[in-house]
Amino acid sequence: MIEGVSLAIFAGLMLGLYALPEKFTKDFKYENTWSLFFLLTMFVVPIIASLTLINGFGEIFGNMPMDIWVKMGLTSFLWGIGVMMWSKAINHIGLSLGFSIFIGTIILVGSLLPFIEDGLPPTNVLTFILIGIFIVLVGVILNGRAGILREKDEAGTSDKKGSMVTGIMIAVVGGLLATGFSYANAAGRPYLHEASIAQGNADWITAVAVMFPIFLSGGIVMTAYFLWQLSKNNAWGNFKTPAFGKNVLLILVMAVFHYAASALFAYAAFKLGSSGNTVGYAIFNTSSVATAIVSGLITKEWINASSKAKSFLYAGLALMITGIVVVAYSNGIN
Hints:
Keywords: Cell inner membrane, Cell membrane, Membrane, Sugar transport, Symport, Transmembrane, Transmembrane helix, Transport
Protein name: L-rhamnose-proton symport protein (RhaT)
Pfam families: RhaT (PF06379)
Radius of gyration: 20 Å
Helix content: over 70%
Low-confidence stretches: 157-161
Shape: globular
GO molecular function: rhamnose transmembrane transporter activity; symporter activity
Transmembrane segments: 6-24, 36-56, 68-86, 93-113, 125-143, 164-184, 204-228, 248-270, 282-299, 311-330
Order of helices and strands: HHHHHHHHHHHH
Oligomer: single chain
Number of domains: 1
């Protein structure tokens, strides 16, 4: 159990840090940065990783049952829409709050979805899981309150409240759609694990195999959206900048961290056992929220926030961590 929990926490750490390099790009509009990011993380990185690391790649995916393709494809497509909305929410409400609301929603809903495929755990285990998730919910609510207070502190008035409310709504809806990732992982892992092992692959390669259909399906909607956005906002010309090479390198780091974090979660869920998809998903995402909040503090997102706003933020963070300890405990008694 300790190994699985540690892997889930480390995966969350990577996810919490993945968007940080965006702050250091130059001359790029929102559309330039995120179009390159999604192209790299959804297509280039997973395709190279899958073809390089998976023995029997064609055999494994060529024989995958159609119902699994459909389940993974549709729910991953919804995940793709959700992640796209997440990036938009970050622009409205900042890295810290964007992570808190979006991933908090994912934790609350996405942690329960695997039960559809895996079945319910014993009553005592389920009770602790639900208690832990409820504690996380309270933490998310407090973080939302902290973000609204910060907006007022920075603006001096409530004139920009609409932007904050819009950002929170985008993050919540995006989070609901993004729970498709959790279901796709639960639906595809059993077959892909057996097929991967049969081809002589190590256990951890299953995580790479699971990410392949998830990322490609999720990437379809993002590609279409950002091609439209680049043209709509006349942003193609922003690629012509002396900082292009540096920007691409920074965005590649974002892409690798995002992909690696997702694959590492899938492996952590496997190591955590029968309730691993639920427990691992909650630990993974809460860890990423905590990391994002800390990184937001370090990059001075909250420098102009009042002590009251920061108190809500810290209280929310403490509750989320407490909740995830309870969830981890549930896996121990399972």
